[in-house]
Design a protein that fits this description.
The complex is a heterodimer of chains A (536) and B (189).
Chain A: H1 11-17, E1 21-24, E2 34-41, H2 45-56, E3 61-64, H3 79-86, E4 100-102, H4 111-114, E5 118-119, H5 124-133, H6 141-154, E6 157-159, H7 166-178, E7 183-184, E8 186-188, H8 214-220, E9 224-227, E10 229-237, E11 240-249, E12 256-270, H9 276-283, E13 299-300, E14 304-310, E15 325-326, H10 329-332, E16 342-345, H11 351-357, H12 362-370, E17 375-382, E18 394-397, E19 403-406, H13 411-430, E20 435-438, H14 449-458, E21 468-470, E22 474-475, E23 500-502, H15 517-535
Parallel strand pairs in A: 1-9, 2-3, 2-12, 3-9, 4-21, 12-23
Antiparallel strand pairs in A: 5-8, 6-8, 7-15, 10-11, 11-12, 13-22, 14-17, 14-20, 14-21, 16-17, 18-19
Chain B: H1 4-24, H2 46-60, H3 68-87, H4 91-104, H5 108-111, H6 115-118, H7 127-139, H8 150-167
Helix pairs in contact in B: 2-3, 2-7, 3-8, 7-8
The chains are: A alpha/beta (536), B mainly alpha (189).
Bound molecules: flavin-adenine dinucleotide and iron/sulfur cluster (SF4).
Amino acid sequence: MVKSKKKFIDYVSKGFEKGWKHIDASLVTSDETLEADVVIVGSGAGGGNTAEILAQVGLYVIIVEEGPLKTSNDFRMKEDEAYSMLYQESASRQTRDRGIKIFQGRMVGGGTGVNWTTSFRTPETTLNFWVDQMGVKGFSESEMSPWFEWVEKRYKIQSWSLPSNANNSVLETGCTRLGIGWGKIKRNVVGCQNLGYCGTGCPTNAKQSTLITTIPGALKEGAMLISKARAENFEIKNGRIISLKCLSMTKRGNAPSKKFFKIRAKHYVLAAGGIGSPAVLLRSKNKIFNPYGIVGKRTFLHPVNLSGAIMPFEVFGEYGAPQTSFSDHYIDTRLDLNKSGFKLECPPLQPMLVATNLEGHGKFHSEIMRKRPFLQVLIALQRDGFHPESIGGSVFLKKDGSPGLDYTVSSYVWDGIRDAFHVMADIQFAAGAKSVSPVHRDAAIYKSPKKAKEAISSLPMEILKARLFSAHVMGGCPMGEDPEKSVVNSEGTHHEVENLSVFDGSVFPTSIGANPMESIFAISAKFSQELAKKIG
Amino acid sequence: MLTRRSLLKKSAVSGVTILAFETCLASPTIPPAPEDLGHHFEFLSLQDRGILSKLIPVILADSLPSSLDEAELSIKEIIIGWDIAVLGLPILTQTELKRLFEVMKSNFILSMTPRLITGVPSAWEDPSEIENFLNKWRKSEPDNFITGNELRVGYMGLVEITVACWYGNPRSWEFCGYYGPINLNSLIP
Ligand SMILES: Cc1cc2nc3c(=O)[nH]c(=O)nc-3n(C[C@H](O)[C@H](O)[C@H](O)COP(=O)(O)OP(=O)(O)OC[C@H]3O[C@@H](n4cnc5c(N)ncnc54)[C@H](O)[C@@H]3O)c2cc1C
Ligand code: SF4
């Protein structure tokens, strides 16, 4: 029998060849006004998901996306190309004090195009907190579970059956030896080749990003995609939005040009993500969008600190599915909020990502890079937004109108970060690490658990000293029933402006306490179905 | 990144008094820029490139190839990588980086920051002087009453872009034991 040759077909670009509607705004010169039933700003988890649902009920949808349209043939697993092409601000976005690096996708597909495929339902404890403390309606576990089931089908979220790469195995071994609970992560992939390059765009179309699932789903129904266009602000008349003004990006894609066009629609959906969605409302400069000054407030990050270890065996953390195991031990045992809880996971370890997240230069830096094949890294994600002291950050506009974020790490969260440094070192040593180094300005490389413990106890937990990052921007347009405390209601509709909704991660009233993609899919699916019933 | 306004504010008082000293000192010697390998530079000036050519070997230490020719070629490529990387950044970030180079050139008029405060080398020839300068910035306290977080942030920016340009370049991969992206064809049965 002759086996047919399977290839990794770039069927999204084939779809455009066959006539899916797409405009690259950086190449267009006319400034005509477009018309649609619904315009969706952003094509990430919230935007892509919403586009398909609304297009399927017969609404004419236009998706406006600031980033470029790139497809699997463009994803060449090269870090030097990918970060500048696919990430917000070339992956150099930071908080105002430069203390936290912020990773967000900026491409057709948004964060789902570059994320690491880790899929968790919103923890029940988080949903309960929203219902009990944050005035949100309709989000109990039983009300949400049909939506999680729907999402898991649509995005093929399933258990990952291959063994973990060595980077993740260290987390498993260390936790097992210390008696700390851990689990395996579900992933939104089909036919995954276990390459490990999810962060530079999946070259095999295994990852079920919105780029290959729901955006094509919407385009098949006749929706139109406009890439490289930044939604600037809404125009309002008699309490209703009458148009959305968009700026074309320059060809290079890093800045808006002076060319603009307008889109008129019956309904407007913001899905530009955390930081992005509040920014459009702030730029719209009308009190009606922000009567109580809440827009952009309560932006959460799951601030992440890192611990590196040199193992006695080869790790090669750049290869193999990047995140396959986790531990929620320090979330589950800290739900009383006496101490800040955190989730433990592993990152992928391609060389540029490693090199740019290490502290120091010269010999210190190069020695770690030389041993990189043996390098293992753990990360801890703080569950911010639940304790009264953990109020999150605040989005502001820079002088050119682009958004920035103020985020003060509370002393409560700093204590959690120190605890996480301790715990990560313990796990790494338990798994056999030869040495451990917390990623911190003042840390050295420690050869024994005792030395590491002493050092971590006295390291200053301060901004720009402990290196922090975030790949999970959440909140900024929180939902709730009280218009004085929230921006949208429990259906994602703006409290004051009836033809405006926000369907993305910015509606979370707290952080999720788990990787947010599946939560955003579920919430935007629920919201979109409700909206489709109203206006479809 | 360094912001002009805050440094101005913070160094205004001390700046005036130190200006007298500063003008007595020899103005800094900026090393010549290495060849451009045919790249048309849009962001980095000749002087910026001269400074980078001396900074890069100190930042990257022995991760650069041991053969002198190869090391030189790598440095030239890293400088080109810098130019390309910066041009992809938001315009405001580019402005901040411009200002960082003004500080490193000890251009008092443009940077308003005396060398006595920033510790920028007077000449860029001596690697140990460059090392001291980098360490001063690295270790500078983020809440320093004159410079604020600016030196620490400037340090992090310099190092980050440099190591990004190097470890994104296949010439560095042997050193860090990276076999590079997977050949997709090898996966097709
Ligand atoms: C490297 C990385 C790894 C991650 N790994 C995981 C993971 O494994 N599991 C998980 O659950 N989560 C992960 N996340 C987070 C997850 O991808 C995001 O939380 C999620 O994609 C956010 O969805 P969203 O719809 O809120 O916004 P996004 O997906 O960020 O989409 C917003 C889109 O809007 C565009 N936009 C912004 N402003 C404008 C504007 N003014 N006009 C037009 N367009 C605009 C942006 O370019 C972007 O494409 C990861 C994120 C990153 C960056
Ligand atoms: S690990 Fe799987 S999902 Fe990730 S890039 Fe590779 S093939 Fe795609």
